[in-house]
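User: I'm putting together a teaching handout on how multi-component assemblies are represented. Below are the sequence lines for each component of a complex, exactly as they appear in our records. Could you produce the 3D structure of the whole assembly as structure tokens, so the students can see both representations side by side? Please keep the chain order the same as the input.
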Amino acid sequence: MLQVYQIIVFIFALFALSRAILRAKESKITRGELYFWSLLWLGVLVLTFLPSFSDILADYAGIGRGADLLVYASVLLLFYLMFRLYVKIDKTEQEITKLVQKVAYENVKKKK
Amino acid sequence: MTGKKVFIVIPAYNEAKAISKVLDDLKKNGYRNIIVVDDCSSDDTAIVARHHKAIVLKHIINRGQGAALKTGTDAGLNLGAEFIVHFDADGQMRVVDIKKLLTPLIAKKADVVLGSRFLGQKAKNMPFSKKISLQLGRIVVFALYGLWLSDSQSGFRVINRKAAQNIKITADRMEHAGEILGEIKKKKLRLVEVAVTILYTDYSIQKGQSWSRGPALGLKMLLRRLLK
Ligand SMILES: Nc1nc2c(ncn2[C@@H]2O[C@H](COP(=O)(O)OP(=O)(O)OP(=O)(O)O)[C@@H](O)[C@H]2O)c(=O)[nH]1
Ligand SMILES: [Mg+2]
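Assistant: Of course. Below is the structure of the complete assembly, with chains in the same order as your input.
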């Protein structure tokens, strides 16, 4: 028996996977990133269609219920992704600063 | 003065009202090499600074005090500075204190001298909330960098050429104060704190840093520490 949520997750995961593959083809993300996202979404698919699998994993990890394990894992993942985003923004900001500094020097030189 | 090449670097953001007096005072005391970094002010800061014959570097986008200090410090190095003074545009620092900070450097007893608001002379009229947040700041800096200072967030510093070349500022905004301390420790530069008087006026308090930004600042310092 397919549940509605399973269909939604299935479509979304396929969509996300295709995005990742496309972006990898355009070399906008690295190979490692492609593996990361593929594994993530495949994992989501497995857990959606074999919910009991999460219980096995949870048992293995020493956490009571599969659903709990999923929530813990998601929170950790979100933290990790946020941190990566922070690093990326920080790098971009530093690049902007470098540019602004260069412009400041060029303009002074011109005035002389 | 002293015959050494001293450069004053002043980060300024919307300080047209205050910077004129600061530049006058500096010139009266014989400091002729003055670099003002105007960080995309919306007022006449740059015009006023130029009027006072300072070298004015303009950021076309606001990048923050840390970025402005880097811009000004690098320019000073390029112009052959032997000593670089980080000085505020808001009139809180006293020009007479620069000499006190320079002394240990000229005597080659330090590479970096920090002006402290908590040694002897009191910060005049410092709000209570600011005192508390600066005490917490000391603890954060100690935890992150292992440096125990009386004033970890001082923006009043004099550094020699070697220190200026070695200290890498990557933090654009107020977390640069902590970052610079980390660099001092990492590059094994000799650090001395000297008492200075910082004046808190209605103008400076209204324009200055509110204690409420403290927690975010602490978090940013932590992240900066992790990234380096
Ligand atoms: N370049 C630049 N300078 C800034 C910026 N914000 C503040 N400043 C300058 O940095 C100096 C100190 O700024 P304040 O906001 O007073 O910070 P503070 O002195 O550390 O904090 P208070 O103790 O509250 O006064 C002044 O000369 C300001 O004009 C900014 O975004 N860019
Ligand atoms: Mg101030």
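A couple of points students might notice: Residues 167 and 183 of chain B are 6 Å apart (CA to CA). The longest strand of chain B covers residues 6-12.
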